[in-house]
Specification:
- The chain is an alpha+beta fold.
- Among the domains are: 108 residues, Transposase Inhibitor Protein From Tn5, Chain A, domain 1, CATH 3.90.350.10; 82 residues, Transferase Inhibitor Protein From Tn5, Chain A, domain2 (Orthogonal Bundle), CATH 1.10.740.10.
- Helices cover 41% and strands 20% of the residues.
- The chain has 15 helices and nine strands.
- The chain has a nine-stranded mixed β-sheet.
- Strand 4, helix 8 and strand 5 form a beta-alpha-beta unit.
- The longest helix has 27 residues.
């Protein structure tokens, strides 16, 4: 699929108040797809077209929710098909500290930083489970995304916490914590024959999130953070788990992280059902919430590992046997997808390099970059989960494959997801030796940029040949 067709499929129908704005949005999205970089002058090289893009982004009708809405609607429609989807949530900070003051930005980690926060829910469809009870997933797209800038804190930390508790008791709290599971009531219950599971890290350990999921027939796999009280006489969730029997042991591959090498960990797992008591800070009327508790602990970790694996998970999935509990752990391990997505957004599309003058305009541009980052992640994910499957022409068009073939020859297995990804990464400096691990985002991105430049030259030469 060429960039123009892709842009029309992803962004046509955005409610911008004027069909000319819709056309311009599709045109600029196609330009960025052809040359996905953070600054608009590099993506839109025609001066008149660039001026029109700036005019488009100045319009108050062109906002992040409106720009990304057609893609989100298409993703949710895909998720309504029978099957099981993981909705993986997390937040990241986009930093523009290297710029002079940008209108609308808020503080990040310190007094001199500026930027805004992005909370994303990715939809990953479980295609199958392998023999180790690890889900084989494909990426459907962005299920939900929202942006906000933090405000300068007022008053002391004690005063702010006291005011937050008062608001929570009154049912009028408005904080960043509200973002977790916000897509649950927005999307509503899944259709019959379809299962949606919310997957998130410790920050999502909020009682109202569980209630929201249960009310709308969503499942959940959330990492516990707090020693929540239970209806059990044994005490809080950690006390309850301390009495639970070990169901078994299994191995789990852990991905490479900053400062931590990839490795295979030996884990033991136990599970037990309980009911969580609602926090006292909530308004009256909340009933205890039934959930399963799953504890995962690393057995005999290597001596050089500073933090052995120890997860306590809250889940609505059944855990009556070892195989079911192991699937819960494997589903939570899929949370790394959202971190890969953030890498694609920052190290890939370089959204933080944008030179636009206001936060609102950068957020609108993010609506395009967010979809491109999801496409890149989908390609990398397919190379891992379905390596031998022929590459989808919607992801990499035949002309691009012809360029790769001229550069590296036709792979013995043909153009599969894995061979295409490795060839793209090789164009970005990846050596692809037998002992090398999978390509990283930097080599993939460099290769993708190189391929798009060569593809543009290919199409220009082809057009000249036809006109001549």
């Amino acid at each position: 699929m060429d960039a123009a067709m892709w842009a029309h499929e992803q962004f046509w129908g955005a409610e911008l108040g004027d069909i000319r704005r819709q056309r311009r949005l599709v045109e600029v999205a196609a330009c960025i797809r052809d040359n996905p970089c953070g600054t608009l002058p590099r993506a839109v090289r025609d001066p008149a077209a660039l001026k029109a893009v700036y005019r488009l982004l100045r319009s108050p009708r062109v906002t992040h929710p409106v720009v990304i809405q057609p893609h989100v609607a298409a993703t949710r429609e895909q998720c309504r098909a029978p099957g099981h989807c993981l909705l993986i949530e997390d937040s990241t900070a986009l930093s523009f500290t290297q710029r002079e003051a940008v209108q609308g930005m808020g503080p990040l980690t310190n007094e001199t930083s500026q930027g805004f926060m992005v909370h994303t829910s990715l939809a990953a469809r479980i295609q199958d489970w392998n023999g180790d009870d690890v889900p084989l997933v494909t990426l459907a797209g962005v299920f939900a995304q929202e942006c906000w800038a933090r405000k300068e804190p007022e008053g002391s930390r004690v005063q702010r916490k006291k005011e937050k508790r008062r608001q929570k008791r009154a049912g009028a709290v408005c904080s960043e914590a509200q973002r977790w599971g916000r897509s649950v009531p927005e999307a509503g219950p899944p259709p019959e024959g379809t299962q949606w599971t919310l997957v998130a890290d410790r920050e999502s350990d909020i009682f109202e999130v569980l209630v929201r999921c249960a009310r709308h027939r969503w499942d959940w796999v959330l990492r516990a953070c707090q020693a929540r009280g239970t209806t059990s006489a044994q005490g809080d969730i950690f006390d309850v788990l301390a009495q639970a029997p070990v169901l078994g042991q299994f191995s789990l591959k852990l991905r490479k992280r900053k400062g931590v090498a990839a490795r295979k960990a030996r884990l033991e797992v136990c599970a037990v059902g309980t009911k969580l008591l609602p926090p006292k800070t909530l308004p009256a009327g909340h009933a205890p919430q039934a959930t399963m508790l799953v504890e995962v602990r690393e057995v005999d970790p290597p001596a050089d590992v500073e933090e052995p694996i120890h997860w306590v998970l809250l889940t609505s999935w059944p855990c009556e046997c070892f195989a079911q509990a192991r699937r819960v752990v494997a589903a939570y391990a899929c949370r790394w997808l959202i971190e890969e997505y953030h890498k694609a957004l920052k190290s890939g599309t370089h959204i933080e390099d944008s030179q636009l003058s206001t936060r609102e305009r950068i957020e609108a541009l993010l609506g395009i970059h967010a979809v491109i980052a999801a496409d890149l992640l989908q390609l990398k994910l397919l190379a891992n989960t379905h390596p031998d499957q022929p590459i989808d022409p919607k992801l990499v068009e035949p002309a691009a494959l012809e360029i790769l073939e001229r550069q590296f020859g036709l792979p013995a297995c043909g153009w599969t997801n894995a061979s295409t990804m490795r060839a793209i990464a090789r164009m970005g400096g990846y050596l692809g030796r037998k002992h090398d691990g999978p390509p990283g985002w930097l080599s993939i991105w460099r290769g993708w940029l190189m391929l798009t430049f060569m593809l543009e030259g290919f199409h220009l030469a082809l057009a000249q040949k036809r006109s001549g």
